[in-house]
Amino acid sequence: MAVTQQLCRTSAEILGDAASSLEALRSIVSFEYSTPPYEVLDLDWAPAMLTSALRASGEPALAAAVEAACKGSEIVNPRFPEGWGGDVYSEIRVNSAALVEALSLSLDGLSGDRFVGVGALLPDLIVDFGSVHVFERHLGKHTEELK
Predict the structure, then answer these.
(1) Is the separation of the CB atoms in 145 and 90 below 8 Å?
(2) Which of 14, 22, 74, 78 is buried deepest, with most CB atoms within 10 A?
(3) Average of pLDDT values for 55-66?
(4) Residue 107 forms part of a structural domain
(5) Is residue 89, in this structure, part of any structural domain at all?
(6) pLDDT digits over 80-101, tens only?
(7) What is the pLDDT of residues 97-132, one digit of tens each?
(8) DSSP string, 103-131
(9) pLDDT for the residue numbered 1
């Protein structure tokens, strides 16, 4: 089974419900909310690759910002940190609106074309993609989505 990174942007009200209700937490993780403000981004395995590529290309501050954006700073529901025992394999975490805004400013300098040429620095990561070009395009796509 593939383990991927999912990001969700939602309201403080929905997060408040999830902090106290296992059913509301399950609804967020299951992507059952369909009304704004609710957006989902599936980054596949990109966060680890993005941070590796940014570090390899001499951008540790951007790597740290991507890592912080994807990691989350607090557990959504401390009683059920990993959900309800369903299809969740790590802690369900959240970043505050203020932190998201600060990270957004940090990530303004991130662009997909930043990764042209970085694939040659990370030959072990290219294997699954078949070519440097496909790997770099993959990173660029997810970079633009993350911003």
Answers:
(1) no
(2) 14
(3) 90
(4) yes
(5) yes
(6) 877 666 665 577 888 888 998 8
(7) 899 889 888 888 788 777 888 888 888 877 778 888
(8) HHHHHTT--GGGGTTGGGG-HHHHGGGSS
(9) 41
Residue 37: asked if its preceding bond is cis (omega within 30°), the reply is yes
Q: Per the domain annotation, does 1 fall within a domain? A: no
Tokens of 4: 């991927």
Number of domains in the chain: 1
DSSP state of 146: H
What domain range includes position 64? 6-146
Token look-up 């009200």 returns: 13
Residue 113, domain member (yes or no): yes
Instruction: State CA 99 to chain mean position distance.
Output: 14
Beta-strand ranges (E) seen in the chain are 6-10, 38-42, 74-75, 93-94
CA distances 60 to 84, 87, 146, Å, are 35, 32, 17
